[in-house]
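Quick start: read one record
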Amino acid sequence: MSCIIYMRPCIFDSGAYPPLDFGCMRELCRFVGITCALTCILTTLHTQAAVNGNRISVRNLTEPGTVTRSPTLFERLPHGKTRVDYINVMDLQHRMSYLNYAGSVCGGIAIGDVNGDGKNDLYFVNAPRSNKLYIQEEPWVFKDATEEFLLSGEDRWGAGVAMVDIDNDEDLDLYICNYDAPNQLFINQGANKPFVESAASYGLDMVDASLMPAFADFDNDGDLDVYVLTYRYVQSGGRPSRPPVGVKNGRPYILPAFEKYYHLRQTGPSGYTADTCGRPDRLFRNNGNGTFTDISTEAGITESGHGFSATWWDYNEDGWLDLYVGNDFTDPDHLYHNNGNGSFTDVIAEVMPYTTWSSMGADCADINNDGLLDFMSADMAATTHYKSIITQGEMGDRRWFLENAHPRQTMRNTLFLNTGTKKFMETAFLANVAKTDWTWAVKLADFDNDSWVDLFVTNGSARMFTDADRNISPGMLVGRTEWDLWKDSEPFIEQNLAFKNRGDLHFDDVSKEWGLDHHGMSYGAAYGDLDGDGDLDLVTADLDEHVGIYRNTSATGHRVTLRLKGKVNNSHGIGCIVRIETKENGIQVRQNNPMTGFLSSNEPILHFGLGKAKTIDKLTVTWPGGKKQVCTGLKADKHYIIEEQASSMPASRIEAPQFTEVGQQTGLHFTHQERTFSDFQRQPLLPGKHSQLGGGMAWGDADGDGDEDIYVAAAAGQSGALYLQKGKGRFVKDTINHALFNEHRRHEDMTPLWLDFDSDGDFDLFVASGGVECNPGDPILFDRLYLNNGKGKFTQASKDILPQKAISSGPAAAADFDADGDLDLFIGGRVVPGQYPVTPESRLLQNNDGAFKDVTTLIAPDLRHAGLVTSALWSDVQADGQPDLLITLEWGTVKCFSNENGRLTDTSTERGLSNYTGWWNSITGADLDRDGDIDYTVMNVGINTRYGMPSSDTPALLYYGFIDDSQRPKILEAKTIQNDLFPLRELNYLSEFIPSIRENFPTYRSFASATLSSIFSPAQLNQTLQLSADHFESGFLINDGRGNFTWRALPRLAQASPGFGVVTTDMNGDGNTDLHCVQNFFTREPGTGLWRGGIGFSGSFDHGGHFHVTPFAQSGFLVDGDGKGLTVCDFDEDGWPDLVATQNNQRMLAFKNNHPSSAKHPLRLQLQGLKNNPTGVGSRVTVFFVKGGIKAQELYAGSGYLSQSSATMYLAAPEHLERIEIHWPDGTQSEALASDHNQHLLVIKHPELAD
């Protein structure tokens, strides 16, 4: 038995012992009679070392069943059992007690084996008192060895700690950040000898408001460099009696004596105020000789900030570690891109859609098992309505910054999803982790061994410094620190939270179920395998109580732990990325960065939960510098030590993405440019702007040369633009019609349509006018019709041809609804300027020999005031040869007006559409499940907003009317909480426009408990217009062939942002429908949240009609702006369908289809219709496949959002097709063989033309 005990350190390979003499050991084992057992152990070791040519040591993990079970996943062990009697004391009498106001009131934690005995030890930093080291003597039993190892830290206010091997002798050293005192570097001497403090000799004795070190090999030279995060200096005597500001040449500046403490914070376009300032962080390069050099300035690390997290992370997988720095208050976060030459560039505005406001702890991990590292940054967003009100008071002069920062900031957690492209998505609301209370540490790890990364956060604060009922003015701080004002208040006790990852971007709160629902003031946290059983245990730094030590009692799920040994100067493989593949779980990725979360350092190992997988099929280690090492066939439930033996591996071939953005090369240089207009000043409490809803486009042959040109809708104050195609992807802006379009620049273009309205053989242009930058009834709301002279010269049609009615229009769509051979027009009313959400008029215009007549009241009376119409589509819902009208509504449903011999009747309820009330944006049609009928894709607001996922029991609510004594109608949003209604907006914002609220509820606490019925009387609420919405998912309406629909939601990944422009066609010739959508809504009121976390998405349907999102990097389709219109066209005339997208207030994007090698050239179909409808708009095409099966398709004039795609239809590759049937709008039919194509183009004429 003594022999086995003696072997364990070698098997664990801690580096604390020299290699064993196995010959001597064998003799010893014979002496005790266990030769056979030792032989088995040695054989196992030798076999593992030989696998794949890698040097690997292995030991079995402790059996999970050998520990006492607990009713919860984690068991908090009493300090009497662990003998860890350490308490983070909040010392109210300390000479530096003013630091209790900061995050460093409670020091950090480090986990690792400091004495090389194979068991993990614990090190705690105590801010006002001595630090402590606890050596683990037996499982879960520790002893205080602080004095033995000389690690008390002396009389310094410590904060964060890192446990790394800085001198590459394979034992773990300690680096501690201190406030306004030299940071300390304790070098481990091994063999249970005392540590030696050596910061000065290493050049790391930095003196500043240091908070946390983060080690990494940023320059890939094999040794560890360090970034030191700082917070701010606190002026111990409080603010000076006179402002610390001078004026020179008319410009303010901070007086030199106060530059350490204050800076000028911008409060408006030209306004500034003196405010406390953060400190500059430092980057130290390891010189490789036991010294470090501060290279911050030359590396481009020069910004100051209130730092709370610094996370090394190769966000773009280029082999160089980048750095995310999270800053508190108005200091912006930074994403420092590693340029690979020793310098960094802050790219956060280019990579992230927005950031957190008060950035706290952070971590990176692959949350959706797609092989890409994602990132989470915490804020202080409350989990309950009550707490959210009492902790969010007056924004004051900080509101300007919140609304104008670049990138924008949001007052909640952010979860950035790595898309493998240049842009990240933000998905915290979608994942149910946007609000986790006053969060410090963020820990992303697989705590239950099911292969999915879970989330643990620590919460609480020394005091509730954000108490909205205590308004701290600068004058109150004269001669006093912030702590002086708060020290007599009660501690802010909150619950820690744990979230189980259910997969599919969804986390569930399992705090109580897992035993992690401790109430207290928890700051730092670290995890590690404290008992060697392969699961992750937790340690938390809890203020004014014993530290929390949590044993993970998981008895399910296979697992593996890894230690990585670099062969140069990185003995624990810091910065390595490990990717494993199993048949059961697919891909999992971990980065070896122990210094994440807040102030703390995890055990420097990697852990993988494997669930049911018993074997890792393939494990790939990417070492700093990019070299890779591959192992295969590793058994589960082991601890492996992998030594670096990497060699350069040939890069795997990466196929180009399907689409490449080439807008600037094509000549499509249009940029949509909005002018400043304050919707919110006109209508306070408006949820979002209506002056920036535009950005449509339409394709048609404007100049009669046989190819398609594009008209791009413009914003109010800007003239629309016509781009003429000159062949092979080259466009020139038309100048002939510029003067005409410029005359109408005051109009807000919404939907343009190319159609031959006057039946003269050329394409005329209709443009719907909308927006709200005018009063109701203003002539700039008149829609326009431009008649073509056949050569691309346009004149405006008279009011006798197009009835003039000043309605703010949105969508428009054309079809021959009355079967007389010409195209009629539906124009949807979008909004009444200044009177949202009052319903505007919509119109049905009948084409009578080229002149339009409003027949809405006569033919479709229910359509006149159908709602706030956002999009429209003419489609033959039940395949009876008559085009029906589908419209989408904001604060309404998708409605279907069935065509019964030219009369439109609302049949929405009968068709199953009345159960989905949402904020719908767009609709298009395609046969998604290949059953011969048309299904519909409808885009909604998604479920990644503060409104969440409403239901019929908890809908989103809006009231509009006279709810106070101002004689001005007001908007009021509400939400349901436990069967009661509460106002959605905060007190400070509501009371600004409804002063009676502040009079009746003078404190935030009184307002936080106030229901809607206690704020407003029944009479006030009953006289308002009341709207509700209970469905925010985007998805599909699956047609049963008879026009009855079943709802099917899009995958969660596609719900990350509001969807607008959407197209469905066959992009690769495989016969299945592909879908592309642009997203985002940039102009929401800040109080309702930022709706710009998407980048658009694409995907494909399988034969069963199930949709799968295409990986973003594989697609190449990326629209990260305020996406609006989207169309299909072949702008480079290569026979493949391309995409063009418009963005509100941003430039147009053109995506060339690169048709990957696996794609088959699709068959292009062009219809030649009769004189009044030359492209056959409204025709229904049915294709018959060679291997059986059919698929239907329709030709639309107006679909998606404010757009009209090319009249060319894209079908499956000809080799997949047998024949094609055409059902023309007039009821006639045509048929052709797919083999009749000419270079993948098939032209089918109307039967009357075919002769």
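The chain has 23 helices and 87 strands.
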